[in-house]
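Complex record, two chains
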Amino acid sequence: MTIYSYYYIYSYYLGECLEKYLNKIYNILESIPQEELIKKASKKLFSNGDLLFNQNGQSIEFNQYNNYIEGDSIKNIDWKQYARTEKLYTKKFHSESNSNAIFIVDSTNSMNFKDTSISKFDYSVLLFGVLSHIIFLSKSGVSLVSNNDFSGFKKQTNDFPILLNLIKEEKNINIIKKLSIIQEIKETKNSTIFIISDFMYETDDLLKEIKKMKALNYDFYFIQTLTRAELEFNYKGIVRFKDMENYKTLVTEPLTIKKIYLEELKRHNGNISKTLLGNNMKYILVNTDEDIKLNILNLFGI
Amino acid sequence: MFLFKHSLFLYSLLSIGILILFHLIKRKNIKEVEFPSLIFILKSHKKISKKLKIKEFILFLLRLLVLLSIIFLITNISIKKKENSISFKSNNNTMIVLDNNYQMLLKTDKSKNDFENAKEIIRTFFQNNPNSNSIFYNGKEHIIVSVSQLNNLLNKIKITYNYQYSTISEFIKNKNKFKNKKVIVVSNYQDTKNTSNIKYSLIKHKNIDNFFIKELKIKRIEYNRYQLKVLIKSSSTNKQTKKITLYQNNNKLSSSIITLAPNSSKEIMMNFTVLRDKKEKKQSNEQKYKLQLESDNLNYDNYKFFIINTIKPKEILIVNGSTSTISYQDESFYLKNALNSSNEKYKFNLTQKSWITSKSIKKYDLIIFLNNIFDDYENQYAISEYLKSGKSVFISLGSNTNIKNFNYFWKDIISLRNFKNMEKTKKYKFVNFFNYDYKFFKNILFVKNQLSAYPVYKYFNLSTKQNIKIIASLNDGTPFIAEKLLKKGKLIIYTSSVDRDWNNFPLSTNYAPLIISIIKYLLEDNLNIYKFYLTDLSNLENFKYDLKYLKTGIYQHHNKIAYNSQLNRSNLLIIKNKKALDLIANNNLLIPLKNWFIMVFMFMIFLETLFFVKRFLWVKDE
């Protein structure tokens, strides 16, 4: 069953507004080398390499048969099947470890900012969609924290629309609060938490919280989504800026403050990446003006 | 303090209000942009907002200054500088030049003159600034260490009556040595233009208690006789009596006594004759005169000098047509008698026509042809050249004159061919018209009622069609005396004889004034008008030396300052600038600020441009 065929099934369940996401997500998934990404997923997405399919043979629980590919261990060949079908199959087993992915997509007002056709939030949803599909395909669980609720781990691609539905109803809720919800639930332990946000606020508290959770065996992956306007600040003349979070305004000359603004932003981002990388967590800055496919490939180091 | 030439334009200062309003409530084109978070913008803005405000304020100031400078340029602002406004504060390494020209003797109050005041100013300066200051004296810089040294040095500096040896001229000679020095010239009278490192201290004149010659007018009344009109002014508070004396070449000529009430003036007249000094064998005809007024205060203000050139008698050449020797029957007898009765002096030379060559007649101021035949055509060229040189010829006709020869003779010179044959009148005619268009008749009253008593019975009939102007005519309108109008030189034709041969007019009382007027008129252009110079020169001994200087110098000091702009560079700085002199004469010093405001204006424009360019380049870089 091709991935694209899911679309028709899901669209049955979903409303119109989610359809646009699905359509895009499957378009992206179609155009990227999935196999390779799934292989790389453990190394790139999970810092401890703790992903199920990579743990083959380590568990007793039978998972599925795969066609024998040159290079596979002969130890795993199911000879009974071979006798039955005269074809070589390898046995695969589930790992007992529960390395799952929990996604937190920042849904604050600032994420609605867009200087091109796509807002930061939309872009984040697409990233979430593509990544979660890849994780589904690599037989790991994906969950989402939204509206003070933990969705529970979904292990099937069929469950994706449920997650998408949750995002649709996402309200403006603080990330730290979402993290506290995760901590309350036992089964989330040892999971990798993906936080997709612009981080355009003071992140000291957030980083503190994360460090604390890291000690509790949580792992983190930060994806910072910023637009070109934020990254380059190419405004001219005299501008009244309106804060999308608190609706405060400020009149200034962007050209005059540009240099200092860029320095401040660089310092802020540097601070985040330094803290995360220093604590063996992962961080990537994504420019929403760039093609999402390229960003995803970049995410996997391809 | 500030003076405005066109103060009406000061109303334009109101426009500053518009500028301020514009600055305060300017509405810029503000774009509104939603932004995810102001956190970094706010931080950056806080860091730079002070700079922005300062920048705005500087821009406002620039505009204000530009506007102000435009307004002040229009109003032509100038600043009135207080005299004595020299600032002696912390002027270390300053050299003081004390002006010791004689004008420093001018008394500013009853007790002290400017020179003494200047010395006091210098003493105060050294009291306040005891360190490493110096005085310029004798071509050198003398560093002052002690009060006694200062006093000694100041005592050494004495008034000089010769500009060439004054401290200021010495300083100017050596000024290159002191290029990098601060120099203060203490004077009552100077130019501030040339040297940038020199400061001037002006001594203010409050009440000049003085008795002085304010104006001198010289008029020639007659040959070598002159009238002197002297305006004497007293600015003294008391009634004073002074003696005024005129000297010629250091010899006393005349003197008179004058009494003046306080703050009054009086004009006195003195007549004198300019005589050649017999002792002086030189050919120079310059006579040097000095007018001296005794005054208690400033002696050298009360000298006036002038030079008068003695006038040589005019030389007249009479070409006599008759062969007879000089006697009382000489044809020029009446003419000469008439001329000798005038207040001018003439020297007559009689000659024959054969003697005339262009060289021989060159020195004469006038040639008179009396009763000539005009058959010698060799003379034509000489006379033509003589007339072309701007000199005059007087022709009188008579029995010797052949009209054909006459017309032919003058044809080539002046194309004069308008004489008809001699007419013998049956009924005697007489002179009864004088052309008052000629200015020389203005002082003559012709006796009219006796005109017919002096008949003219022979004359040549001159056609009036030609380019002539009648001076006097007979009762029937025919010309008696006429001027042929020439481009150069003057030619007057007397159609009858100047003696009693053909008429009795010489016996008339009108004859002499008519002849004198005409001859004076003919000699007018060649007359050497007397020349004289007025000067402030210190004494007569230096007269010759200073004469060169005089031609390009200052002529009179007090209220009126004469000035010659073609001053040599070698001359003194202090008398170089007319403007400065005028300013001092008006007792204030106005410094036009126009140039300063032009500079400010240009500078501001430059800064504004810089702002703009900087911004423009920045935008381009990014």
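Note: The first strand of chain A starts at residue 62 and ends at 67.
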